[in-house]
Design brief:
The chain is an alpha/beta fold. It has 17 helices and 26 strands. The protein folds into three domains: 96 residues, MurE/MurF, N-terminal domain (Udp-n-acetylmuramoylalanyl-d-glutamate--2,6- Diaminopimelate Ligase, Chain: A, domain 1), CATH 3.40.1390; 220 residues, Mur-like, catalytic domain (UDP-N-acetylmuramoyl-L-alanine:D-glutamate ligase), CATH 3.40.1190; 152 residues, Alpha-Beta Complex (Protein-Tyrosine Phosphatase, Chain A), CATH 3.90.190.20.
Length: 491
């Protein structure tokens, strides 16, 4: 598709332009390796490299215009240069403009927070599909245009990919779209230029401090989403998280609250909880759901409240909510023929682990053992490792520390970081097994009838990343295979 450079420059603030803007563009990118003839190249400073170092490569590949924060040492007379204050923001705004501002062609709702994003967005997409609407969604697991799957590589895609997919959503007739908005994407301006009809705040706990450095910085990153929410939109805030009110201090949006434990505009109460579901009272109506735990009650309430704010009928929302299944890798459970229950969950923060184990301990009937298998991701926030292990040990009868996605770190060193959070009493009930497959086998061999195994950290993932290579590995598949074995039968 051809777009005039002059037309899309109207949507950004420029500091200086050198060269003609009466150019036909065939595409735009921030990756010099993806430049084709008649492309616009946006030089963006990244965490690992600086696009300004690749301007010459982009021009050699066919770029006819360059957006940058500083002029190159040599300017080509055949290239148009546009200087801006923030090229990352300009990239997002130009991508939106290039693809015809697709986010304005349907009602877009984003969610930000530490936990619950994938479940909430996935359920919103399923709910609106069953209500008869065509909708799109962006999640950590995968993206959808209607019922068509588009594989996900990041929680929030880069601005070019994001707007290209949104254009496909608009062209396909989507009336709604739902997306996870990560803290990284907010700081990196990936969602600048998008028009949100609404935003949801789930919660904020200890995570991503490898990137944001301090909790205050992480909090500020999340707050950016609501600071930039346009007038006429809504912000739906979790009243059970004390940081919720911080989020909306500077917002122009209309604010509503949802809560399980607090006074709120939208309320939910758990009446009964079992491994196969919960009986909830949502907005004074009782419904049976196939979800477990207070954290999932909060997620379901957010889905209900968002749908109400989008104008959907209360009775229809509740009817459909009662039919929905759990989300892949989020409190997925299976049982062996000897009566052992295993739960697979993506919990990889101290708060998420606390929530899942609290739920398991509330549901178990008596003296069943809770066996937790857990690791921590390599090349990520190291400060949460000892806290995660401590929480898991406090709420489990037996703890097995193992590898998660070690990436480029030594799994044993990661486990040692986790062990640092355990006292001598906790260490007495801890087993160290760096090989994740062997850790799962150990848990299954030690479990007796009625015991509950929690396998935390990887959830829906079907790989284990070791030294830059992704090897096929699924916690759910491994457990399903082990549960079909006879007790004590070697694999």
């Amino acid at each position: 598709m051809k777009v005039k450079l002059a037309d899309i420059l109207k949507d950004i603030r420029t500091e200086q332009v050198q060269g003609s803007i009466n150019l036909d563009l065939s595409g735009l990118t921030f990756d010099s390796r993806k430049v084709l003839p008649d492309f616009l190249f946006i030089a963006v400073k990244g965490t690992l490299s600086d696009g300004h170092d690749y301007v010459d490569n982009a021009i050699s590949a066919g770029a006819v215009a360059v957006v940058c924060e500083k002029w190159p040492l040599q300017l080509s007379a055949e290239v148009t240069y546009i200087r801006v204050a923030d090229s990352a923001k300009a990239l997002a705004e130009l991508a939106s403009s290039y693809y015809g501002h697709p986010s304005r062609k349907f009602r877009l709702v984003g969610i930000t927070g530490t936990n619950g994003k994938t479940t909430t967005i996935t359920l919103l997409h399923r709910l609106f599909t069953l209500l008869g609407y065509k909708s799109g969604c962006f999640t950590t697991i995968r993206n959808y245009i209607g019922n068509e799957t588009v594989e996900a590589t990041h929680t929030t895609p880069d601005p070019v990919q994001l707007n290209r997919i949104m254009k496909d959503m608009a062209d396909a007739g989507c009336q709604y779209a739902f997306m996870e908005v990560s803290s990284h994407s907010l700081v990196q301006q990936r969602v600048a230029g998008l028009y949100f009809a609404g935003g949801i705040f789930s919660n904020i706990t200890h995570d991503h401090l490898d990137y944001h450095k301090t909790f205050d910085e992480y909090l500020r990153a999340k707050k950016l989403f609501f600071d930039n929410m346009p007038a006429g939109s809504f912000s739906l805030i979790n009243a059970d998280d004390r940081n919720g009110r911080v989020m909306i201090q500077n917002t122009k949006s209309a604010v509503s609250y949802f809560g399980v434990r607090s006074m709120a505009d939208f309320k939910c109460r758990i009446i009964e909880s079992h491994f196969n579901g919960m009986l909830l009272n949502i907005d004074h109506v009782e419904i049976w759901t196939r979800f477990i735990g207070e954290f999932n009650a909060s997620n379901l309430l957010a889905v209900y409240a968002c749908a109400r704010l989008l104008g959907q009928d209360k009775e229809e929302i509740l009817r459909v909510l009662s039919t929905l299944d759990t989300v892949e890798g989020r409190f997925q459970y299976l049982q062996s023929d000897k009566g052992v229950t295993a739960v697979v969950d993506y919990a990889h923060t101290p708060d998420a682990i606390l929530n899942v184990l609290r739920t398991i301990n509330q549901i178990r009937k008596g003296d069943e053992q809770v066996i937790t298998v857990i690791g921590a991701g390599g090349n990520r926030d190291k400060t949460k490792r000892p806290v995660m292990a401590k929480v898991a040990a406090e709420m489990s009868d037996l703890l097995i520390l193992t590898a998660d996605n070690p990436r480029n770190e030594d799994p044993v060193e990661i486990i040692n970081d986790m062990k640092a959070g355990l006292d001598s009493k906790m260490l007495e009930k801890t087993i160290i097994q760096p090989d994740r497959r062997d850790a799962l086998k150990t848990a299954c061999l030690l479990a007796q009838k009625g015991d509950i195994i929690l396998v935390a950290g990887k959830g829906h993932e079907t790989y284990q990343e070791i030294k830059g290579i992704k090897h096929h590995f699924s916690d759910f598949e491994e457990l399903a295979s082990l549960f079909h074995l006879q007790p004590n039968t070697p694999n």
